[in-house]
Design a protein that fits this description.
There is one protein chain. The protein is α/β, with parallel strands linked by helices and about 210 residues long. It has four helices and eleven strands; from the N terminus they run E-E-E-H-E-H-E-H-E-E-E-E-E-E-H. The chain has helices at about 40-55, 75-90, 100-105, 170-180, and strands spanning about 5-10, 15-25, 25-35, 65, 95, 110-120, 120-130, 130, 135-140, 150, 165. Strand 6 (about 110-120) and strand 7 (about 120-130) form a beta hairpin. It is globular, with a radius of gyration of 18 Å. The termini are far apart.
Length: about 210
């Protein structure tokens, strides 16, 4: 990790556009706007606002952090594409962080992060003192121990099923920024969407067009 890195991090994997700036060892500016759609249009203006609030320019950044999902397919692609484009234009590393790891950051004891995946399924990953103990999994709700301690978002559709829910310690962009700051200098691939299931889209009813040679 660089001494005092400056990280711009964002998340568009859910119904929001969220940006945080990490500098001097802490979050210095953060903004989260709820929205169902329009993240692609709103992301860069929001980044500009967060940087301006902290009087930091794009060239001051040491890295870009981005939440790579799991989450909304279109939203994940928006964030990942933006991070890759910024990394290329600024000649800075872009670091992908999973949503489950961000939610589990700085948690205490052994606990799982649970995230609604719809169709009576959830994404789940186990952590001990914030350290991942396995890989993210897509599991059926009827196979989950609802009496165990879990970390969930307050608006998760399945939250009423669980007896011992805890909120994430940090907001998503905050956690993404902190994790990205800790990983500067590590060898890591370009950010890529974390997809644990197939896209939820209906196949066309018409047969595909046959292109003649």
């Amino acid at each position: 990790m660089l001494p005092n890195p400056i990280i711009l991090a964002f998340d568009t994997s859910a119904a929001h556009c969220a940006v945080a700036l990490f500098a001097g060892g802490d979050i210095v500016s953060e903004h989260i706007e709820p929205m169902i759609k329009g993240q692609a249009e709103r992301l860069f203006p929001l980044c500009e606002d967060v940087l301006a609030n902290a009087k930091i320019s794009w060239s001051d950044l040491d890295a870009i952090g981005v939440c790579v999902g799991p989450g909304n397919f279109t939203g994940v692609r928006v964030g990942v594409s933006a991070a890759r484009g910024l990394a290329l234009s600024l000649n800075k590393p872009a670091i992908g962080i999973s949503k489950l790891e961000a939610m589990g950051l700085d948690s205490k004891g052994t606990i799982s992060v649970v995230l609604d995946a719809r169709r009576k399924r959830v994404y789940q990953q186990f952590f001990t003192d914030g350290i991942p103990q396995d890989q993210p999994q897509l599991v059926a709700l009827d196979g989950i121990n609802t009496a165990s301690a879990v970390i969930m978002a307050a608006d998760d559709a399945n939250i009423a099923m669980f007896h011992h829910q805890h909120a994430p310690v940090h907001s998503l962009p905050n956690a993404v920024a902190r994790l990205a700051a800790a990983r500067i200098g590590d060898n890591h691939p370009r950010p890529a969407p974390l997809y644990l299931q197939e896209p939820d889209a209906a196949l066309p009813s018409e047969p595909p067009v046959v292109i003649l040679p």
